Fold this sequence. Notes:
The complex is a heterodimer of chains A (256) and B (298). Chain A is an all-alpha fold and 256 residues long. Helix content of chain A is 79%, strand content 0%. Chain A has ten helices and no strands. The two termini of chain A are 21 Å apart. Chain B is of the alpha/beta class and 298 residues long. Chain B has two domains: 2-210, 3-Layer(aba) Sandwich (Rossmann fold); 219-297, Alpha-Beta Plaits (2-Layer Sandwich). Chain B is 34% helix and 30% strand. Chain B has helices spanning 42-49, 92-102, 108-117, 131-143, 161-172, 187-193, 211-218, 230-237, 261-274, 289-297; strands spanning 2-13, 16-22, 25-27, 31-35, 57-62, 65-66, 77-80, 149-153, 179-184, 196-201, 204-210, 222-227, 243-250, 253-258, 279-285. In chain B, the strands form three sheets. In chain B, strands 7-8-9-4-10-11 form a six-stranded mixed beta sheet, sandwiched between helices. In chain B, strands 1, 2, 3, 5 and 6 form a five-stranded antiparallel beta sheet that branches. In chain B, a hairpin with a 2-residue loop joins strand 13 (243-250) and strand 14. The radius of gyration of chain B is 24 Å and the shape is elongated. Chain A binds chain B through residues 1, 4-5, 7-8, 11-12, 15-16, 98-100, 102-103, 105-110, 253, 255-256, and chain B through 47, 50-54, 71-72, 74-75, 77, 79, 81, 83-87, 89-90, 94, 98-99, 101-103, 141, 144-145.
Amino acid sequence: MILKLMKKEWKELIKTGKIYALLFPFLFFSILSPVIAKFTPEIIKSLTSTQDMQGIIIKIPPPTWKDAFLQFFKNLNQIVFLVIAIVFLGSISEEKNKGTAAIMVTLGIDRKEWVIAKFLFQVLVVFSLIFLSYILCVYYTYFLFSEVGIYETIASTFLYLVYIFFILSLCIFSSSIGNNMLQSVGIFFAIFVLFTLFSIFPNLEPYNPLTLSSLQNQWIVKGVIWKDAIENISTVIIYSVILITLGIIYFEQQEL
Amino acid sequence: MNVIETYNLCKYYKEKRAVDNLNLGVPEGVIFGYLGPNGAGKTTTIRLLLNLAKPTSGYAVVLGENITKSRKYLKKVGFLPDVPNFYNYFTAREYLELLSEIIKVDKKRVDEVLEIVGLKSEKKRIGTFSRGMKQRLGIAQALLSDPQILILDEPASALDPQGRKEVLDLIASLRGEKTVFFSTHILSDVERICDRVGILKEGKLILNDTIDNLKKRFSKRILHIEVNNPQKLFEKLKKENWIESISFSDKNALLIRVKEIQRAQREIPRIIVEEDILIDRFEFLEPTLEDIFFEVIS
């Protein structure tokens, strides 16, 4: 039944056009990031050559593939993260709000399977898009810089996948608790802000999912050190499992 | 055999007793009209029966399964909510085909149910459907798994007369094939198609019987009398304590509800003779469901 329910999610993504809302930013930033990294120094140089800025000397080191991927992850962590949250936060709560969830569960569809199917589908779609945009970014980076650190970029992308796994489980949890999109957005950002506040305490870093984003950059710049991330990855996976489990338990008990 | 049974079923929301000690039995194969004024607890009962809400206390048995312990029975139940909402971006066929895959029903059944509800050739997206079309699609969706029980929450309340007739005819056509549990506050709908009726007031079931039995129980208590001087008879009868109510049904006729039928049979002719009134017509009326409903509710 889970596969069939995932098929319904896929059809919904296509028919509502949400697929384009997801696809466009992924493709856009995977192509744009290496381009921005390559041409930013030249743009700045051309600005300083104007009459007003004459006399100012700006020294910018020549860009490398690392700048392209730093730019890529920066965009993924900011804009694409928001798009993912907006597209998926209403996945359960809006169905509850509109009454379509009630129809589905009264057809005898298992509530647990319904939630799991939504989560697996979201993971599958977002991971596929990340994979696609990674390939594109590698291609354009190689095209523009003639070199790419494959191991570092794959390892950093893996950290991003773990981070997104957590974000999607937080989406499912918030959507299960909230009775409409607005409530779900509130719950999601409340928890997200809580983790942002964790960043104030350096000793909590291994337990903070947001640390994964800074590790991505570190690995690109300084090289991959797995032992720095093991604790963080494990914690984030545990958080994700807890969030999904709580989301399922809550939805199982919920009146629709 | 009852396919739905509730035992002291209660659902309380803070101060409000939405369903209060409900003991209800619905026999197999009947069209059961679940009647009550707005806010009586009809939708809450349905939500409890469908596991969409949890009882505060008590339980129900649907198709032999205790609903507080299992949800498997839902596969044998079809449901139409009072305001059905679907995935608006699908056509009716796409939607039902998708559901048929999910609940593992042969796709041929989609054609059958679309035929039944008259949406077989409809190509528009559900989002553009009228209320009546959505209602019909809701019935198709409820029939898709060929359920043993159909639970319909106010299926015709918001429809125009034509749409209402279509939906009621559709429900009536299921008689004998399925048990239909059908909530409404429109008495004429129940009278038209239901075999059995339950009347709910403030969460309590105050009546549950066949319409025929109800009419027998409440019949011979309404009299229609036509005389040459109705005003005189009216003045005489209104003082009697065995009269419940008396009114003019037209210029020469009185409509009289009595508390004691035998006394009325004896006293009214006596008064007519004593007052030298000429009688044109003396008839016991069969009560409508509306008469019964208001009598029971009051």
